[in-house]
Write a structure and sequence with these properties.
mainly beta, five-stranded antiparallel sheet, 50% strand, single chain, eight-stranded mixed sheet, 15 strands
Length: 200
């Protein structure tokens, strides 16, 4: 299943971002427009501590004068524990490990992605959907054409639902399903940013 996030003003619609949910539990999130990442930006976080977790926030701004362009950067979670940031068909810019199943059992929610779009007037017009039968539209109406759109994606614990296979294989005694919460907001005009939280 795919979710396309669209900003709307009167009869005009602009593309903000997308979320792709795969049958194996993998989740990818990206902005529709081009974002920029510093050439020296490379990071790996492969430590994990169930008892003394630390949360890091990574934030990359769209600054054309100082950054190296990266086409369609997207963050992906590959169950059960692997996260990475990648450009289309390119090497990883960032990678890390975190046990989502354990964190959800303990905390109920794992905050993950926080994107901000460019102002509405600078976004690309929406085009045809790649896979209409598997895609839903999340539309955000803006009060004027100068606002930016915030896009957040979190993992949430789903009581009453059976845990997916990738959870039960790695966490004996898991009691709930895993869901994705996609939320949007209307923000003052600003540069687009690519941000995510990593818990280790």
């Amino acid at each position: 299943m795919n979710v396309q996030v669209v900003a709307a003003y009167k009869d005009s619609e602009r593309s903000v971002g997308w979320v792709s949910l795969q049958p194996d539990g993998a989740v990818s999130v990206g902005l529709s427009d081009r974002t920029f990442v510093a050439p020296s930006f490379r990071a790996r976080n492969f430590l994990w501590n169930v008892n003394n977790r630390v949360t890091l926030e990574y934030r990359v701004a769209h600054e054309p004068g100082a950054m190296e362009p990266v086409v369609n950067p997207h963050l992906t979670f590959h169950p059960p524990i692997y996260f990475h940031l990648r450009e289309n068909n390119q090497v990883e810019l960032w990678a890390g490990m975190a046990d989502v199943a354990i964190m959800l059992e303990q905390d109920g929610i794992v905050r993950w992605v926080r994107f901000v779009s460019k102002p509405f007037t600078e976004l690309k017009a929406t085009g045809p959907l790649r896979d209409p039968s598997r895609t839903t539209i999340r539309k955000v109406s803006v009060p004027d054409t100068e606002h930016s759109i915030g896009l957040g994606v979190d993992f949430v614990r789903r009581p009453g639902e059976a845990p997916p296979e990738w959870v039960t294989k790695n966490l004996v005694g898991a009691t709930a399903g895993v869901g994705i919460d996609i939320h949007t907001s209307i923000l003052p005009p600003q540069t687009s940013t690519l941000a995510w939280l990593h818990h280790y």
